[in-house]
Amino acid sequence: MYKSTGNSGSRIANAIIVPMVAVVVISLSGIFALLHWSARVSDETAEQSQYQLIAGALRLTQNYLAKQQNGVVIWDEAYHRINQPEPSQGWIYDNVMHWLYKTDGFNRSVLIDREFKLGSVYAQNHSTKWLNAKLLADLKPAIAKVRARYIASFKRTPSGLFSYTPELISTRRSIAETGVVALEGEPYLFSAAAIIPQIQSVTPRRVPPAVLVSMMPLRGEKLQEISEMSRLDGFVLMQQQSSEADLGRYPLKSPLGETIGVIAWQTSQPGTQMMRRIDPLLILAALMIAAVVVLVTVFTRQMTRRLARSEAKAVHTARHDALSGLPNRSRFHAMLSDTLTENADGETNTAVVYIDLDHFKDINDTLGHSAGDKVIVAVAQRLRRVIPESGIVARISGDEFAMVIRNCEDDVWLDFILDQVQDEISRPIMIGRRELFASLSMGAAIAPRDGNDPDELLRKADIALYDAKANGRGRRSFFEQSMELQVQSRDKMSRELRLALKNDELDLAFQPQTDTSAKRIVSVEALARWTMDDGTVVPPSQFIPVAEETGLINELGIWVLNKACAKAHEWPGITMSVNVSPNQFKHPRFVEKVMAILAANNLPPQRLEIEVTETVFAGRNDSVLKALRRLKNLGVKVALDDFGSGYSSLSYLRRFPFDTLKIDRDFVSDMNGNAEAEAILVSIIQLGKALGMTIVAEGIETIEQIRFLQAHDCHRMQGYFISRPLDACALSQFLEDFQGKYSAGFGMDLSYRGRTAEA
Ligand code: C2E
Ligand code: CA
Ligand code: CA
Fold this sequence. Notes:
Helix content: 40-55%
CATH architecture of the largest domain: Alpha-Beta Barrel
Number of strands: 27
Bound molecules: ligand C2E, calcium ion
Radius of gyration: 65 Å
């Protein structure tokens, strides 16, 4: 029934969940990325500083190599011996090269003479294979630099000679260049130093020095030293680049810039280590957040689904009548609007039908509300069944339904459909074991003929329904323009009546009632009269219903009571009968008002008789009966007017102990010689008497009727034959003449028949 539930529910849910999940995912991955980035930065910084550490250690080691050479390269004897034209190889071997091997571990040495030619060569294993052109080429830049620095250390003296003045004489520093070269595929540390004299010398010429290049392998002791100096883990010498991720690499370059090996070490990666510790926590946190998100998602989905469902339900109940399941008034209005918009082109007719269940109040009153409910449900089902598929049926209020019938061909066709509706409804409805017969009054308006606005159509259908009911129950009317005129004139009349009441333009006529003898006036009935400004007399049969509809009846009724009670003083001993409409009993303080009026006019309650028709029993009548009972207990007489004209009069006699029974005019007028009518009249009189009631016959127009009623001992008689309703003045005159005549003992003089208040 609530189709859109799922969709709208998940739509609302997604509107909440999707952005929420997105925000969570984005911020989580943002945090993740940020942490990993800073870890990498800190790793890189650490590696950078470790790199610097190794570079420093290597530099220190190389400097130390140069220092170790000092003993042989800054030495007068070596300087002189080596620079001889034919130096002694043996001396060089023993005192320079082998000595360097023995004391400092330089296991390779090469001497380059002043002419830049290869002098002595030393290897601790006596091999010379290692010395090749490539190696010499690698060493050449360092040797050339040493030679140049040596030459640059000379200064010209004033005598024109050159003086050797090294940069830092006091420290006895050699002129040396250090570096790394590849030797038989292994990196070797080398130091190339100029052979210089110990003492400062002055020479006529600047000649390049002999250069001693001493080498030792990096692998082994030296590597160990560098490792210790830099305090790094996993220190190794590798031939090539390794691809292992967490290894730091320090490339060893030859003076010519070639990479001849790599020092690798286990980088301490503080960032990565931190991440290693943090990652599980992060993952845990992410999992927890994910779990929370999932929970919230599920919860939100459930909530929104439940919300959507209850919303759909609320919408359904707001649109439908709970008892019949039919759309209600507001829904009907919306559906009608839609239908009219669809057919806005005016090519097809749409009928709007108002339906009123006749006598539904009676069913409710006599059989109870649950029976009433069953009737409503049955009628709803039948209406739905009988109207065309495309039609709409709705329950407008208690016993009111409405229909929309689409593609309505013409009035005849619609009449046919409504016939079927009527037939369907008139089949008996079973309530328990009881068969009930319902009937409908219907009013129809048709679009576009009667308009295209939903409110206008509904109003016109309502007018048509009013017309149907006014013509008796079980009928139907199609809206006609003249009906609207009637409504308008009714509206006009109600406005004018209100004004007349306000301006005290209404009046009362009084119609006398005799006793059985027909010689004594015992009571008068007060009847409202309205003569308009232009002299038009509006009969009560017209303005009383209008007053009832507009609620003016309350005001009017009070006015009548007041006036009648005020006048009663003028006619002592005579009962004043006043008509009271059922609507007046709905006023919660009606009884109090009546008593106040009696008190204000100083009239004993016994002199007032109120006339009610059996319609007072329609609807919820408990309060009406209560009010009647209170009035009766206070001494006011209560008469049942128009007895026999209605629906189930006899049962009403049981429900309230009326003082007076007024037999409906129709029984009296039907009488003339009609045995059946006479029999009914007689039995009503007998029934009333048996119940201890005063019997009044009204509408007496002939002497025969009087004689018949006298013969059957009817208590009171009223009618044109005795007198028409008279105005107060005329009544006073009438009473004087009438009573005077009979007390004087004359026969019945009927000359007053023609004297009327209105005539
Ligand atoms: P009702 O209460 O049955 O009043 C009697 C009606 O019968 C009066 O009509 C009266 O003029 C008429 N009538 C009396 N004798 C005869 C007769 O011999 N032949 C014929 N054909 N008619 C006779 P009226 O005054 O036109 O009143 C019509 C109805 O209007 C009353 O019927 C009563 O129901 C209502 N009505 C009049 N005045 C009031 C009022 O003040 N309050 C209320 N609630 N209803 C009133
Ligand atoms: Ca009456
Ligand atoms: Ca009457």
